[in-house]
Write a structure and sequence with these properties.
InterPro entries: Glyco_tran_10_C, Glyco_tran_10_N, Glyco_trans_10, GT10-like_C_sf. Pfam families: Glyco_tran_10_N (PF17039), Glyco_transf_10 (PF00852). The protein is an alpha/beta fold. Helices cover 23% and strands 14% of the residues. It is built from 13 helices and 13 strands. The strands form 3 sheets. Strands 2-1-3-4-5-6 form a 6-stranded parallel β-sheet. Strands 9-8-10-11-12 form a 5-stranded parallel β-sheet. The protein has a two-stranded antiparallel ribbon with strand order 7-13. The longest helix is centred in the C-terminal third of the chain and has 13 residues, at 363-375. It starts with a helix and ends in a 5-residue tail after the last helix. The structure holds 2-acetamido-2-deoxy-beta-D-glucopyranose (NAG) (4 copies). One 2-acetamido-2-deoxy-beta-D-glucopyranose binds at residues 249-250, 279, 304.
């Protein structure tokens, strides 16, 4: 607590406006802080009651469903048809095919039911609940290999290429799909020294992962621009003058049960703790009894905090997990992100809905800024104006939330391009050197 006092005092004595100017100098001007073409209301809080959203009843100007992500033409061309539907709201020419597809989950179907059918809870769910199609049958038994239209291989559980069946000539039209929900550092759980993606030459036809350019994208969550009707409903239910800081008696929380990370995230947390109070839930902190971490039991206590440290275990492209979508957004806490680069994350999250550690020179600078926002409800509330323009959906089953893996594979079989595709070198798709970035 002793270390807390000095910076806090500094933040308190300087008037809010001056403070903003001072603090702004700690931040590299970056797209994350709201300079994008469709940036949410006024980036820098000026004098007055903060950004002025549309008057009651008046629809705010909504983000363009394609432009807001700031994708290049090339990035758009790399999306599958299903990817365009999920990330650009492009539903043109999506006609389901008139047949029933058989999808074989190779070897690990039962194990994966925990997520895909039970949503980490006790109840079974229909895998096509809230899905645009349902003309697929999921099978677990090897005997369906000859009949399957698609075979899914869960790489995390796969110990070597020898676990895969032989592809016979009559399997030519099947889609062999590799599935991973993990960053490229953790593609395989077993035998990592010999079991490498580069061994799987020319085996797979499709990719299935959180990456937006997957043939079958299964992101942990998504931000989706509101429709006019949804925006009007949001305005009608959340007053634009709402104070999002109200009732929050905690400033910064983080939860973790994996106390490691390629980005040394816990070193950063400990450093941050020298400058301000950070409450740690889960196995890596003092509060593991209050919230165990993991995917079974939610941690509603996070709702009491203004910020959540969404520190991923690796800093890799598109790897944005439940730490952001659920722990932070869902609990009404502003995510402070360590993970994907700010440059890429603007393709994924609404402007001014989050902070990113790379925008701060040091944990001390981040602490100063967090304490400033903690002291200025007006400035804090600028991180919530996106809620009148976007919604957040969670799609990976944690804490009994919806999960769409089987839905997405079925949609891909219905909608995606039917042409032949082969991943000759899958390690070029999931690549640590290219996709994961670390400072020093
Ligand atoms: C769908 O396929 C079935 C059997 O192949 C056929 O009888 C039916 O007419 C088809 N329906 C449409 C809408 O094409
Ligand atoms: C906030 O208040 C709740 C309810 O009174 C309490 O359980 C919790 O410990 C408080 N949290 C902090 C960070 O002070
Ligand atoms: C965590 O526990 C240690 C030792 O038991 C204690 O010194 C420290 O104050 C605790 N931290 C918090 C945030 O409660
Ligand atoms: C899938 O990949 C195999 C190569 O392993 C190839 O022979 C086959 O034509 C591909 N099928 C499709 C539908 O792309």
């Amino acid at each position: 607590m002793r270390q807390n006092r000095r910076p806090l005092l500094v933040a308190v004595v300087i008037s809010a406006t001056v403070c903003w100017v001072v603090l702004a100098t700690y931040i590299n001007p970056g797209p994350a802080l709201g300079s994008g073409p469709t940036a949410a209301p006024t980036a820098a809080p000026g004098p007055g009651p903060g950004p002025a959203p549309a008057a009651a009843g008046e629809a705010p100007s909504l983000p363009d469903p394609v432009a807001w992500r700031g994708f290049s033409k090339k990035e758009i061309s790399q999306l599958s048809k299903l990817g365009r539907m999920l990330f650009l709201q492009d539903t043109a020419n999506l006609t389901p095919r008139n047949k029933t597809f058989t999808v074989l989950m190779w070897k690990h179907g039962l194990y994966m039911e925990n997520r895909h059918i039970f949503h980490f809870g006790k109840e079974r769910h229909d895998p096509y609940e809230d899905c645009s199609v349902r003309n697929c049958r999921i099978e677990y038994d090897d005997k369906f290999l000859s009949k399957a239209d698609a075979v899914i291989f869960h790489l995390h559980q796969t110990k070597s290429i020898n676990e895969l069946p032989r592809r016979l000539p009559e399997h030519r039209n099947q889609r062999w799909i590799f599935l991973t929900d993990e960053s490229p550092h953790h593609t395989f759980m077993f035998d990592r020294s010999t079991n490498k993606l580069k061994n799987y030459v020319g085996v797979f036809n499709w990719s299935m992962s959180y990456r937006m350019d997957s043939d079958v994208p299964v992101p942990y969550g998504r931000a989706i621009p509101l429709t006019k009707e949804e925006a009007a409903a949001a305005l009608a239910t959340i007053p634009v003058s709402k104070n999002y800081a109200l009732g929050k008696n905690g400033t910064v929380a983080v939860m973790g049960s994996n106390c490691g990370g390629w980005n040394h995230r816990w070193d950063y947390v400990r450093e941050l703790q020298k400058h301000m109070r950070v409450d740690v839930y889960g196995g890596c902190g003092n509060n593991s009894r209050a919230c165990p971490g993991g995917f079974r039991k939610d941690c509603p206590k996070i709702k009491n905090y203004k910020f959540y440290l969404a520190f991923e275990n690796s800093n890799c492209r598109d790897y944005v997990t439940e730490k952001v979508w659920w722990n932070a957004y869902r609990n009404g806490a502003v995510p402070v992100i360590m993970g994907d680069t700010q440059e890429n994350i603007r393709h994924i999250l609404p402007r001014k809905s989050y902070l990113h550690v790379d925008d701060f020179a040091s944990p001390a600078d981040l602490a100063r800024f967090l304490m400033h926002l903690d002291n200025s409800d007006r400035d804090y509330n600028t991180y919530f104006q996106w809620k009148y323009k976007y919604k957040i959906v969670n799609e990976h089953g944690y804490f009994q939330s919806p999960v769409y893996h089987y839905c997405r594979v079925c949609e891909a079989l219905n909608y995606n391009d039917e042409s032949t595709k082969i991943y000759e070198h899958p390690e070029e798709f999931l690549n640590v050197e290219r996709d994961c970035k670390y400072t020093k």
